[in-house]
Sequence to fold (464 residues):
Amino acid sequence: MVVLASGAVGHAVMTGLDTGIDRVDPFKDMKNRPQAGHGMNFLLVGTDGRDKITPEEKREYRLGGAPCHCTDTIMLVHLSADRDRASVISLPRDSYAEVPAHQDQNTGQPHKPHPMKLNAAYSEGGPNLTVRTVENMTRVKIDHYLEVDFTSFMKTVDAVGGVEICTAKTMRDSYTGLELLPGTHRLTGGQALQYVRSRHVDGAADLGRMQRQQRFIAALIKQATGSGVLLNPVKFKQVSSTLLGSVRADRDFGSEQMLALGQAMRGFTPSSSEFASVPVGDTAYEVKGIGSTVKWDEPKAAKLFESLREDRPLADAPAGEPGRPGPSGQPERPGNRPPAAVAVDVPPDEIRVQVENGTRMAGLGGRVDSALRATGFDTTGRPGVGARRDVKRTVITYDPRWDRSARTVATALPGSELRAVPGQGRTVLVTAGTDYEKVIAVRADDPYQGRFSVATGDQVNCAK
Fold:
């Protein structure tokens, strides 16, 4: 959304808009902060605020429930020191976090450090605790804080004339009311909110939702930069005032920062986009009193954030870290060096996979499940324990009716053994053996000779 501040209109149009920003102080009394790196870091937070949404909109877009007063979306945005590159890293809202000692903003009671889901830090300590928690987890110093609620998001999308996205398959979510058939759609603000909030359209849950959010941002940037908004001072001021009139930001954030960030994000393309998600080690890390959380892969995450601190492109991050979502939801490294992907018949996101650990190696099932999911497969997220614990060669059992799906899984797991089991059903069972080393990227050939869609990352015939 901050891309709206770039272009020829410049400071002249931005003058006076700063006064419409609702100010917060997320850095108050903060001590022992990470050392500043190169470039500038923004924490972009989306909250579930819906106080200004009409009753009709609440009914139409399934927003009738009580807000949790927590963060619905968390993104770390890095602006390079040369102002030529912006990098966006999504932080899973259900990430396992250990919040520092703080005073509860609701009760005034002091809290000792304790574990919770990352998105709940906002409800206990507001922007200040959210910033402190993210800095502790990433060791990246936050320079500016931006907060957008449901209302401002909808108004901004409507102000640019809607955003076009392209879907390769039907997307339905009964929780948000999202229902999109395959093809191209121009989403209004309310429909866009459904799209970025949906967590139940596939088996990837919140991780899949983060990918859709990143794709939508790319589509929004494309719409803003390609629709004449940036070169039309009247339209530009309308869109900017709509956004800034309902955003919350730190007191030092203003037109200068918005213009710099917008200029760096202008011209995002599939090859230049710097999108990534935090590498995940366990998607179902159980914590007493909290439930299932997302546990980061700490070594890989540390290297990713090191790249950010040192102002390096995310494409230079170590292998194994998920980059911008590519076709069928599989990770693709940003820049001009995408990972090689083996062609298969069936897209991985159409294949349901259950993983079991066939060894006595602790955590192997979780590692395999996470790796398959990161590559785009629809895994259950709940790996089990195999009937045998002495499996040496990874085994893939499948119903012969879904033999092409099984071969796709086998391609992603080189060296594995295929075993047909009539009547097993559509779910492919992977029993991990001691020979497991890695999951390789796979990609389905496009039967429609379609084009790559910036908005969704899917291969689909959406050419006009």
